[in-house]
Design brief:
Shape: elongated
Oligomer: single chain
Radius of gyration: 39 Å
Distance between the termini: 144 Å
Low-confidence stretches: 461-485
Number of helices: 15
Largest sheet: 9 strands, antiparallel
Helix content: 25-40%
Number of domains: 4
Mean pLDDT: 85
Strand content: 15-25%
Length: about 525
C-alpha cells in the first residue's frame, strides 16, 4: 500500500523530518564512517550514470523490529501493545515495525541444536532482529530491493512504545521458536503443560497471562486442532495439586538438551539453574568420583549422594563458583540429574588414581617390604604380638599380619576409611581371611594371605623394591601431583620409624646378651 499523506518516501522528506539517513546500494551503506556522518541534500544528488541510491534509515533515536521469520507477524499483533508505523515489500508486507526511542540491539536466533527446524526458511535460523542506535540502519520506504518497492503499510509517525518493549518482543521471539518446534500429535499436551510449568516456576507471570500465552501458541501455530483444550494451562500450573512439568520434560518432548531450550526462555528473562548444567562425567574409581559442568566450571563430587540433593549441590556451586544459584524444586533437580545421567561420560581410570587404589598402595608398600621375604631377616611368630608384627610361613607360603598394622599405616598416610570396607578390600584383593595363631601359648587374632598373591600385586604394580621412587606417578593424575610431596614425607617418616625399631631391637638383643653374660659371671663367682 502506498500512502498519499505525510509519510516520507524521498531523502528530502526524511531529512525535513529530522531523520538520520545514509545512502545505500542495495542494502549496503556506501559512505565511509557512515555511522558517524550526517548526510545533507547534496549527498543524495544522483549524477548521470549513477545507480539509484536506496535510503538507509539510521536508527538514531529509533528502534526497528525486523521480522525475518513469517511466524513473527502472527504474534506481533498479540504482543505489540502500542501501534506503530510498519512497512515492507509487496512479497513481504509489514515486515518492519518502527518506534521512537532507543534500546539494545538484539538478534533472536535459534540455537545450534535446533537449526534443522529452520532449513527451509529464507532467513534460516534468524527469527527477528531489533535494530537501534546510529550504528544500525534499515532500508526504508522510497527504496527498491530485488525489483520490489519498499512501501509503508501503515504510517502514524514514530511513536513511543508504551509498555515493556524488551519483554513483549521476547514473547514474540519465544512464541515463534516454540511454534517452529511444535510437536506432532501425541506430545502436544505435555509440550504445552511443560511450557506453562516453566513460566509458572520461573517468571512472575499471572495464571491468566500464562493461559493466554499457551493458548496463542497452540492456536496460532496452525498445527494443533485441539488448541481450545490448552486454554487453562497456566491456571493448572499455578495449582499445587496439579502435576507440573518443566524444562526437563520439554527437552524430552523436543528431543534436545535442557540448556538449548533454556536459551529460548532467556528471551523473556528466565534464569533457570537446571539449564546451566551441561555435562556429567563419572570416573570409575572406588569410591566413585563425579565431575559436573556448571556454566564453564567443572565441579568435582566425591560423594555420590550429593548428586541427589539440590541443597548440597548449591553448596558445591557456592564453594567453586562463588555464587548462590537460583532455587530449584526437588522434582526439577531429579529430572535435571536424570537428564545428565542419560548421556553421562564414563571414564575408566588406573587403580592408583582411585581412593582405595591409594589405600592399596599403602598396604602393598607395608606387606611387600623386601626384607620380609629375606630368610636372613627377622621373622618369628612372636612378632605378631606387636601391632606392627608380620610373620611369613615360608614352608606353607602364607603371610600373617595384624589388621591394626594396616590401620596405623593408613592413618599415617592420612587416608580415611571404613573398617568394613577395609576388611572387604583385603579379602578381595589379597584373598586374606581372619584367623588365630598360637604365639607362645596365646591365641593372637590376625589375618593370613597367600604370599604369591601379595607378591603378585607387587609385580603387577611394577615396583622393583619398596622405595618411594617406585610409587606409581601418573602424569595426568591431579591427585598424585598434589600428594607427591606428602607421600615423600610419609616415606621418610616411615624409614625413620623403621630405623628406630631396628635400633630398639638391636638394643634389646644387646641387653639380653649382657644379661646372659652377667648371669654366667654370677654363676662363676658362686662356684669360685
Amino acid at each position: 500500500m502506498t500512502f498519499k499523506d505525510d509519510s516520507p518516501g524521498t531523502p528530502h522528506e526524511y531529512l525535513n523530518m529530522g531523520c538520520d539517513i545514509t545512502p545505500c546500494i542495495d542494502k549496503r551503506p556506501i559512505l565511509a564512517d557512515w555511522q558517524n556522518k550526517k548526510t545533507k541534500e547534496e549527498d543524495w544528488i544522483i549524477t548521470r550514470g549513477e545507480v539509484q541510491k536506496n535510503i538507509g534509515l539510521k536508527m538514531t533515536g529509533l528502534k526497528d523490529i525486523d521480522c525475518d521469520n513469517h511466524y513473527v507477524k502472527r504474534f506481533a499483533g498479540k504482543y505489540l501493545l502500542s501501534p506503530s508505523s510498519s512497512f515492507g515489500r509487496r512479497s513481504n508486507p509489514c515486515s518492519h515495525y518502527i518506534y521512537s526511542g532507543e534500546t539494545k540491539s538484539k538478534k533472536f536466533v535459534m540455537p545450534k541444536e535446533l537449526e534443522s527446524y529452520c532449513k527451509d526458511f529464507p532467513h534460516g535460523v534468524t527469527l527477528l532482529e531489533v535494530r537501534s542506535g546510529s550504528s544500525h540502519q534499515t532500508i526504508a520506504p522510497g527504496s527498491r530491493i530485488n525489483n520490489e518497492n519498499v512501501e509503508w503499510n501503515h504510517w502514524i509517525g514514530f511513536q513511543e512504545y508504551v509498555g515493556d518493549f524488551d519483554r513483549d518482543v521476547g514473547k514474540i521471539a519465544l512464541s515463534v521458536a516454540l511454534t517452529i518446534i511444535y510437536p506432532p500429535k501425541g506430545n502436544r499436551d505435555n509440550f504445552c503443560t511443560a511450557i506453562a510449568g516453566v513460566l509458572s516456576n520461573h517468571t512472575n507471570w499471572t495464571a491468566n497471562e500464562i493461559d493466554v500465552f499457551v493458548y496463542n501458541l497452540a492456536s496460532l501455530s496452525g498445527k494443533d486442532e485441539n488448541a481450545n483444550k490448552k486454554m487453562a494451562k497456566g491456571t493448572n500450573a499455578k495449582n499445587d495439586k496439579t502435576k507440573n512439568f518443566g524444562l526437563p520434560k520439554l527437552a524430552e518432548v523436543v528431543g534436545c538438551s535442557i540448556s538449548t531450550l533454556a536459551k529460548l526462555f532467556e528471551w523473556i528473562g528466565v534464569k533457570n539453574s537446571s539449564s546451566l548444567f551441561s555435562e556429567l562425567k563419572v570416573y570409575e574409581t572406588d569410591p566413585t568420583m563425579w565431575k559436573i559442568k556448571y556454566k564453564n566450571t567443572w565441579i568435582t563430587i566425591m560423594d555420590s549422594s550429593h548428586l541427589l540433593s539440590w541443597t548440597k549441590m548449591s553448596i558445591h556451586i557456592l564453594e567453586n563458583c562463588y555464587e548462590v544459584p537460583n532455587p530449584m524444586k526437588p522434582a526439577e533437580w531429579k529430572a535435571t540429574i536424570n537428564n545428565l545421567l542419560s548421556s553421562v561420560q564414563k571414564i575408566k581410570v588406573d587403580e592408583s588414581e582411585s581412593y582405595f587404589g591409594q589405600i592399596g598402595a599403602v598396604i602393598d608398600e607395608f606387606l611387600n617390604r623386601d626384607d620380609r621375604f629375606n630368610p636372613e631377616s627377622y621373622n618369628e611368630k612372636k612378632a605378631l604380638k606387636s601391632s606392627w608384627g608380620v610373620y611369613v610361613d615360608f614352608e606353607n607360603n602364607i603371610m600373617y599380619f595384624r589388621l591394626e598394622s594396616l590401620v596405623m599405616k593408613i592413618n599415617d598416610a592420612r587416608l580415611k576409611y571404613e573398617q568394613r570396607k577395609l576388611t572387604q578390600f583385603i579379602r578381595d584383593q589379597y584373598k586374606a581371611v581372619p584367623t588365630k595363631l598360637n604365639v607362645e601359648g596365646k591365641d593372637v587374632r590376625c589375618w593370613k594371605a597367600p604370599v604369591d598373591i601379595i607378591r603378585g600385586r607387587n609385580n603387577k604394580s611394577g615396583r622393583t623394591n619398596n622405595s618411594w621412587q617406585n610409587y606409581e606417578h601418573n602424569g595426568d593424575s591431579d591427585t598424585l601431583k598434589r600428594d607427591s610431596e606428602t607421600e615423600h614425607i610419609k616415606f621418610l617418616a616411615f624409614k625413620k620409624k623403621q630405623r628406630q625399631q631396628k635400633e630398639k631391637r638391636d638394643q634389646e638383643k644387646q641387653d639380653e646378651e649382657m644379661r646372659k653374660l652377667q648371669l654366667e659371671h654370677t654363676k662363676d663367682l658362686d662356684n669360685y
